[in-house]
Amino acid sequence: MNWILKCLSPVLVLGPTLTCMAPRCMAPLFILSAIALLITDWHQNKRLPRPDKTLLTILGGVIGYGLISYFWSINQPDTLTKVGQMIGTFGMVPFVAPILARLETKDFYRLGQLWLVGLGLGTAIYLSEWWNGFELYDLTHPGNNDPVDSKQNKAIVLLSLWLVMAAPYLFVTAQKNMRLIFLGLMALIGYGSSVSHSATAELLFLALPILALIVWKLPARFTMTLALIGTVGLTTLMPFIAVGIYNHTNWQHTETINRSLKSRVEIWNQASSRAFEKPIFGWGLDASPNLPNRGETSVLFDFPMDIHHLHPHNGPIQIWFELGAIGVAAFCALFVTLYRRMKTLPEAAQKYATFGASGIFLYTLSIWGIWQSWFMASLCFAGLMVYAGAKFLQNKTAA
Questions:
Q1: Distance of CA 152 to the CA centre of its chain
Q2: d(CA 100, CA 384)
């Protein structure tokens, strides 16, 4: 097996399974695999890989600005810790990407097999856990009484994210039987999403085939441009959209959305309102756990209850709240940079990159705090796999 695949195989095979028992393991698993890639590459070439300078500049700028925000952060005790976690996840991407670009066509056939093994193990463990009342999770987390988010939602949502990453590898390189197995696993993960307690998990899973259909049927350049406009537009305007939904819709009394989604509307509005108070510099990296409450109370209870969450449950709003317009501009620069690079790819690679990047962005809109270490690691790994897949399709078309 190619040494690159050997370094990636722990994440590919064990990632989906570990998320069912200990989602936080994703961060050290990703970081250790990335370090193994760098060490092995240095051992073989006697030098570290030449980093992607543009990614290094943008992601390094985000991390550096997060470090500077320590001086005005309202959550200083956690700011430096979060900077360290970002270095271990985001900081690896510019160095690992050039290594993955060296994968050869034959390696992707093997990569598809590893995806299938990982998805199969993860799906089997999750459904077994669901059937048995999450006994294994309880065994590894004594005293944990959170039956929803940690036990069910994180695992099933990350399995869906694995589908986003794995689909193109399997459908481009795999034999018919592997594709059928993949479709079966997709159906099982869809079932797991439907029986979870997360409306967000269900919506995300349903959005994936719709996204795939749009990307597949429409011209590549059109969908790629549409994705850029949507990504930059939502990142820039999300606080205004959130406040508009809160103030100008009848969301409090409608029965078409459940309590989970209603709580999203409340915290989105609260975090957006605080973001408007410091729109340029933000409140500081990882300030969300200390998000100020200005007397806002929830409408979801029969008694007064302050609105308070550990994070806004929305990536763009969290960036606005913590890093302000400066942070938003940095991420928009990242999206524009990726778009420009995607324009140089052949059509098949453009479609795959559009699907992968858009799918990853969807996962930041209504789930967890984007700076949680395991979630950063998952997003970084997903981005790297999409990059590698696009490079593979580019080389395949050229051949």
A1: 17
A2: 8
